[in-house]
């Protein structure tokens, strides 16, 4: 009987017996605390837990094909074409001369309407590849709906987990890990300046479903199998790490290709899942595991 | 028999896959049992498959907006006539035409007596005050219009889109889970501004007469002809020579005599005809016929000598033809559409600061998205395959895993083709998510059945498979729970993502993942 787990892909070996529960849990809890701090700071500064994108604040996004000799000239043309300054101009890597130009809707009028922007783009000789226009009050409603949806999904998942395991500590371990799996990507979004979009909301919901898989697997092996704790953990880890790494690989390449092609929906789903799945590796095998071990060896005895 | 019993899951999967392939590739004529493509005509197939593509992938314009208006429920007006209620309420509202105030009795669509105002910039408080001032008891006053108005608006918008010749355009009412109502307009292959021009205005058309009274002041006799008063509305005509672009119309028989009297009384029809100078010198002109759209004068005209004499003699009522002139041909086309489709009972809230959203994708961008998202999906699959091969090192474990996961996507594609669900980017994201969860579950199965020790008997296999399935079921349940808010809430375009992820998980748990278990057993056990 040893505490060593042999991970797939010849990854490092982990000897869990060398670390106390306190040590194991300290790292993910510290990261969670920092993440919560980042979100709280963003909330204090901007009034929202994460910077909402055009879909939630209202605004106009144009995808334009610009006929210009080089990038700087194209940006210059775009800058001159519109009667208001764009909030951002991004180029699409895989498509030459294509730019995504975003305008925020402004309070108090004065800002050009989407139709005016459309006309200005046409007059400047740009080819309009796509237009997205969201009314400000519609955006605000959507934001409430989206955050409510994430909350509801999380609550539903928590209830289901408790119903499945019917033991407090292992269930709450899953719920805390899943909570951290969502909070960490949101904090990273704030730090990296990624805006909340429909794609990132979808990804957060998907994380709730995805990230608990490895936790459920771990709990299942420890709770419902005969055999000693470390053997169960080792076998759960072999499978679980493979699962997460497979998903992670898919999401990393999806994020890269979708970004190159300028498919924002897929890119934002991908990036949030990359963050979340990475966080999940840490949370499952450090936080969830330490709680389980405490419960198995000390909590039950009391 | 033993073979069938042992492999029924695999056989079932193959049957479902064949069905999906049929739904995907069979020529439309053969699939008469299934519903025809949403567009309505069987001839349109996007490429080699029966898949329908959404606007994101095929190009076009989508507008989603609520209707402008406020409605008071539980208004107590007893048996008073609706017209008199409307007049009384209008009198208390500043600058709102009576046509924008509608009283409605309780009916199948409308639980209580209601008064609705569809003019812009009327707040719920203003309507409440107006009702109080007019002496009507009332219940809640809310934003939004009545169900009847929404239905009429959808019908008028549909006919506008048809009249404008925008084929494949659809208009529908969508209700969010929070009880808000939106009108959703989708027009494939059309520019945003064209569609917006068409649906943005109320499009109410009427003819007024502008004339000089005996004491010398100018007056307007309103609505001598309205939208419903025409029996036939011709196609818009290009102007020729001195004739401006116009829409030829025939006035309905019951209205013709009344109109004739109006033009004679006001002097529009006088011997020698009239020349209108309304635009240049409104205080020194012959009487004019004013064509008004949404209250704005679009054209002012006098009457030709020949028409005037036929009006005066009364001959005109035998053949009550008439032309409505416009400044240019495109105005004539819009006028014809407005006349035929009728006026919108309420306006879409898509202006500045409005609640609407609109999007446009050019057809070439749609093609690019189609190709690029396919490449993205394929690369994701390749990445998954690479990881799985590296991990297991055995083609007989890894290969069926990839094939099984892909078969889930084939089933979903077949399903989408069969019900005509339009594929767009969010659905493709759903497919990628399904491959992800699918492979995860297959890894659980593979690891579980291959754990230490040979799988000598079917019994060992079965017990291990069952253990693996508990985890898979639990994981599937959490995914479904997590996705269901998105499937129900109408959060923009993400419904397709949630629906297909959930369907994929269900298909996976019921069909493909058990079949993979059978395949693995056939490859790994010794006893058969």
From TrEMBL, chain A:
The record's annotation in InterPro entries points to: SecD/SecF_arch_bac, SecD/SecF_CS, SecD/SecF_export, SecD_SecF_C, SecF_arc
Looking up SUPFAM superfamilies in the UniProt record yields: Multidrug efflux transporter AcrB transmembrane domain
Any one GO cellular component localisation term in the record: plasma membrane
Q: What keywords tag this UniProt record?
A: Cell membrane, Membrane, Protein transport, Translocation, Transmembrane, Transmembrane helix, Transport
Instruction: Please list every transmembrane segment annotated in the UniProt record, as residue ranges.
Output: 24-45, 144-165, 172-192, 198-218, 239-261, 267-287
Q: Which domain of life is it from?
A: Archaea
Q: Which GO terms describe its biological process?
A: intracellular protein transmembrane transport; protein targeting
Q: How does it sit in the membrane?
A: Multi-pass membrane protein
Q: Where in the cell is it found?
A: Cell membrane
| Every Protein export membrane protein SecD/SecF C-terminal domain range | 123-296
Pfam families attached to this UniProt entry: Sec_GG, SecD_SecF_C
Coiled-coil portions: none
Q: What does this protein do?
A: Involved in protein export.
Per the record, the similarity remark reads: Belongs to the SecD/SecF family. SecF subfamily.
Q: What is known about its subunit structure?
A: Part of the protein translocation apparatus. Forms a complex with SecD.
Q: What is this protein called?
A: Protein-export membrane protein SecF
Please give the organism: Halogranum rubrum
Write the lineage as a comma-separated list.
Archaea, Methanobacteriati, Methanobacteriota, Stenosarchaea group, Halobacteria
Automatic annotation (TrEMBL), chain B:
Outline the segment boundaries, as ranges, of region: Disordered: 29-48
Membrane topology label: Multi-pass membrane protein
What's the domain of life for this entry?
Archaea
Classification via InterPro entries: SecD/SecF_arch_bac, SecD_arc, SecD_SecF_C
Supply the alphabetized keyword list: Cell membrane, Membrane, Protein transport, Translocation, Transmembrane, Transmembrane helix, Transport
| Protein export membrane protein SecD/SecF C-terminal domain residues | 358-510
Q: Where in the cell is it found?
A: Cell membrane
Which ranges does the record mark as transmembrane?
373-390, 397-421, 427-447, 468-488, 494-512
Summarize the subunit comment: Part of the protein translocation apparatus. Forms a complex with SecF.
Q: What does this protein do?
A: Involved in protein export.
What name goes with this protein?
Answer: Protein-export membrane protein SecD
Biological source species: Halogranum rubrum
Q: What is the lineage of its organism?
A: Archaea, Methanobacteriati, Methanobacteriota, Stenosarchaea group, Halobacteria
């Amino acid at each position: 009987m040893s505490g060593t787990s042999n991970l797939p892909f010849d990854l490092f070996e982990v000897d869990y017996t060398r670390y106390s529960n306190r040590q194991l849990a300290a790292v993910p809890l510290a990261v969670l605390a920092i993440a919560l701090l980042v979100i709280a700071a963003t909330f204090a500064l901007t009034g929202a837990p994460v910077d909402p994108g055009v879909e939630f604040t209202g605004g106009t996004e144009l995808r334009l094909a610009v006929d210009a000799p080089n990038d700087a000239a194209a940006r210059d043309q775009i800058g001159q074409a519109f009667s208001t300054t764009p909030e951002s101009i991004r180029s699409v890597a895989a498509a030459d001369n294509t730019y995504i130009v975003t305008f925020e809707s402004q309070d108090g009028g004065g800002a050009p309407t989407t139709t005016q922007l459309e006309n200005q783009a046409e007059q400047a000789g740009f080819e309009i590849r796509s237009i997205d226009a969201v009314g400000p009050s519609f955006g605000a409603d959507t934001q409430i709906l989206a955050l409510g949806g994430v909350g509801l999904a999380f609550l539903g998942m928590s209830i289901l987990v408790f119903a499945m395991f019917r033991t407090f500590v292992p269930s709450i371990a899953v719920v805390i890990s899943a909570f951290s799996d969502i909070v960490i990507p949101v904090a990273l979004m704030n730090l990296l300046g990624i805006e909340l979009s429909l794609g990132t909301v979808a990804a957060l919901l998907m994380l709730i479903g995805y990230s608990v898989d490895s936790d459920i697997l771990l709990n299942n092996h420890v709770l419902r199998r005969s055999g000693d704790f470390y053997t169960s953990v080792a076998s759960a880890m072999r499978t679980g790490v493979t699962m997460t790494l497979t998903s992670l690989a898919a999401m990393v390449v999806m994020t890269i290709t979708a970004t190159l092609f300028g498919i924002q929906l897929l890119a934002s789903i991908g990036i949030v899942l990359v963050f979340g799945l990475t966080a999940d590796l840490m949370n499952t095998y450090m936080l969830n595991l330490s709680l389980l071990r405490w419960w198995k060896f000390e909590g039950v005895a009391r | 028999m033993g073979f069938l019993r042992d492999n029924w899951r695999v056989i079932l999967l193959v049957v479902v896959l064949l069905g999906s392939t049929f739904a995907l590739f069979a020529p439309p004529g053969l699939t008469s049992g299934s519903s025809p493509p949403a567009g309505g005509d069987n001839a349109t197939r996007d490429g080699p498959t029966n898949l329908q593509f959404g606007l994101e992938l095929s190009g076009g314009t989508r507008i989603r907006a609520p209707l402008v208006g406020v409605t008071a429920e539980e208004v107590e007006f007893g048996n008073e006539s609706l017209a008199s209620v409307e007049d009384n309420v209008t009198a208390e509202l500043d600058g709102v035409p009576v046509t924008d105030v509608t009283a409605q009795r309780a009916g199948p669509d409308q639980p209580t007596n209601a008064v609705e105002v569809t003019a812009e910039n009327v707040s719920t408080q203003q309507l409440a005050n107006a009702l109080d001032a007019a002496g009507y008891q009332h219940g809640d006053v809310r934003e939004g219009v009545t169900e009847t108005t929404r239905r009429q608006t959808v019908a008028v918008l549909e006919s506008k889109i048809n009249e404008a010749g925008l084929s494949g355009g659809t208009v529908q009412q969508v209700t969010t889970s929070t009880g808000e109502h939106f009108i959703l307009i989708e027009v494939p292959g059309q520019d945003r501004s064209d569609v917006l021009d068409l649906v943005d205005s109320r499009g109410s058309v009427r003819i007024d007469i502008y004339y000089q009274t005996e004491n010398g002041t100018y007056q307007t006799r309103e609505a001598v002809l309205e939208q419903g008063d025409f029996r036939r509305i011709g196609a818009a005509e290009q102007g020729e020579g001195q004739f401006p672009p116009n829409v030829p119309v025939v006035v309905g028989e019951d209205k013709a005599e009344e109109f004739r009297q109006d033009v004679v009384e006001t002097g529009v029809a006088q011997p020698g005809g009239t020349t209108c100078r309304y635009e240049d010198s409104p205080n020194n002109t012959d009487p004019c016929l004013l064509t008004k759209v949404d209250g704005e004068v679009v054209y002012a005209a006098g009457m030709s000598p020949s028409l005037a004499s036929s009006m005066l003699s009364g001959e005109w009522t035998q053949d009550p033809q008439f032309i409505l002139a416009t400044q240019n041909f495109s105005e004539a086309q819009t006028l014809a559409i407005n006349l035929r489709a009728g006026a919108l009972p309420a306006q879409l809230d898509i202006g500045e600061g409005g609640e609407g959203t609109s999007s446009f994708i050019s057809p070439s961008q749609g093609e690019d998205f189609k190709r690029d998202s396919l490449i993205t999906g394929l690369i994701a699959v390749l990445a998954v395959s690479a990881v799985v091969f590296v991990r297991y090192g055995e083609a007989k474990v890894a290969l069926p895993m990839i094939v099984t996961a892909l078969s889930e996507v084939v089933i979903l594609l077949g399903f989408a083709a069969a019900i005509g669900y339009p594929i767009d980017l969010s659905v493709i994201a759903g497919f990628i998510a399904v491959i992800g969860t699918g492979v995860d579950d297959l890894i659980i199965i593979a690891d579980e059945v291959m754990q230490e020790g040979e799988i000598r008997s079917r019994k060992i296999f079965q017990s291990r498979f069952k253990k693996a399935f508990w985890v898979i079921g639990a994981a599937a349940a959490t995914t479904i729970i997590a996705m269901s808010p998105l499937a129900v809430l109408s959060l923009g375009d993400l419904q397709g993502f949630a629906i297909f992820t959930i369907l994929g998980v269900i298909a996976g748990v019921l069909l493909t993942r058990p079949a993979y278990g059978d395949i693995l057993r056939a490859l790994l056990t010794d006893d058969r």
